[in-house]
Design a protein that fits this description.
about 325 residues; alpha/beta; four-stranded antiparallel β-sheet; 13 strands; P-loop_NTPase; ABC transporter ATP-binding protein
């Protein structure tokens, strides 16, 4: 790749003011409504969001497969097309056929020959743990095996940026575990990784940073712990028989109160304040626990009512899409 000072892996990735709408019989669909994302080299970033949040559209623009209606994409200081042509980007998308009637090894070898600085073919095979598949014809592979081959193809170019759209969808539990082990190994080489997922656990476990998308916008961006803190949800649980829920819900710092048998569950906007109010008012409270919200809870709260993208009458940013 080029060594011009404004290009190269050190310059990172930037998506600025990106917008994309599609036409549909019901009217325009604003798939991406103005997002700004800057990614530092070496980061592993999860794009997390419900169906229709705009993750695939964002990834397609990052890869230069879709032209944005507005905004710019810069990958290591280059346009996506140039970055891909230079071998700096590897991608594994949800769709896309692999060339048929070659063996797995032949296909990986052929793909490696197209790039300036590839991994060794054996290294790519070992890294993606597909030694058992190398002699197979590509048209004889199961869905999950094809997905592993796609992964090997994405890696063999030895890209500085690896982009994956829902990479583990067709994989069983074991393949998924191996896939993430490989990802960690690849990330530890200083590579930048961007992956889209529906799986909260995957984003939480494998990404340095989670970009939560809903309805074509970024609703939260940061480490998983920070996202949970953004929601500010903490729960106090205490054994408190015959408690008056209305009075509990009215305590400062409490947003609502519920019971589970003899226990009360207080959802809190500020658990410290709530605890300070709870104890003098209810000295009989026992077994008190304070816990942070799970990522699942944060996700649901932040994307609430945004499960599907709106089709609306606002045509203001459709002009460029026509
Ligand atoms: N080519 C297209 N034509 C019309 N609408 C489209 C097109 N591509 C995407 N959309 C719509 O844009 C919205 C965002 O879709 P996108 O695929 O980016 O979301 P996503 O977050 O990747 O969802 P999923 O998790 O279901 O893949 C959806 O409402 C989708 O139906």
């Amino acid at each position: 790749m080029t060594t011009h000072p404004d290009t190269g892996p050190a310059t990172g990735i930037s998506l600025a003011g990106l917008r994309k709408s599609f036409k549909s019989p019901q009217g325009p669909v604003h798939a991406v409504r103005g997002i700004d994302i800057a990614i530092t080299p070496g980061e592993t970033v999860a794009l997390l969001g419900p169906n229709g949040a705009g993750k695939s559209t964002t990834i397609d623009m990052l890869l230069g497969l879709l032209p944005p209606d507005a905004g710019t994409v810069s990958v290591f200081g280059m346009t996506p097309d140039r970055a891909i042509a230079s071998g700096a980007v590897g991608a594994m998308l949800q769709v896309g056929a692999v060339i048929q009637d070659l063996s797995v090894r032949e296909l990986i070898t052929m793909m490696a020959s197209l790039y300036p600085n590839p991994l060794g073919v054996d290294e790519a095979i070992e890294l993606t743990r597909i030694q058992d598949l190398v002699g197979r014809r590509t048209n004889r592979l199961s869905g999950g095996q094809t997905q592993r081959l796609r992964f090997a193809i994405a890696l063999v170019s030895n890209p500085d940026l690896l982009v994956l759209d829902e990479p583990t969808v067709a994989m069983d539990v074991e393949a998924r575990r191996e896939f993430w082990a490989t990802m960690r190994e690849f990330a530890s080489r200083g590579k930048t990784i961007v992956f889209a997922t529906h799986y909260l656990e995957e984003a939480d476990a494998y990404a340095d940073r989670i970009i939560l998308m809903a309805r074509g916008t970024v609703v939260a961006d940061g480490p998983a712990t920070e996202i949970k803190a953004t929601v500010g949800l903490r729960t106090i649980r205490a054994t408190l028989p015959d408690a008056d829920l209305t009075a509990l819900a009215a305590l400062p710092g409490v947003t609502n109160a519920d019971t589970r048998g003899e226990a009360v569950i207080l959802n809190c906007s500020d658990s410290d304040t709530a605890l300070r109010a709870l104890l003098p008012a209810y000295p009989q409270a026992r077994d008190i626990e304070v816990s942070g919200a799970g990522l699942e809870e944060a996700f649901l709260q932040l994307t609430a009512d945004n499960g599907d993208i709106a089709v609306d009458d606002d045509t203001s940013d459709m002009e460029d899409a026509r």
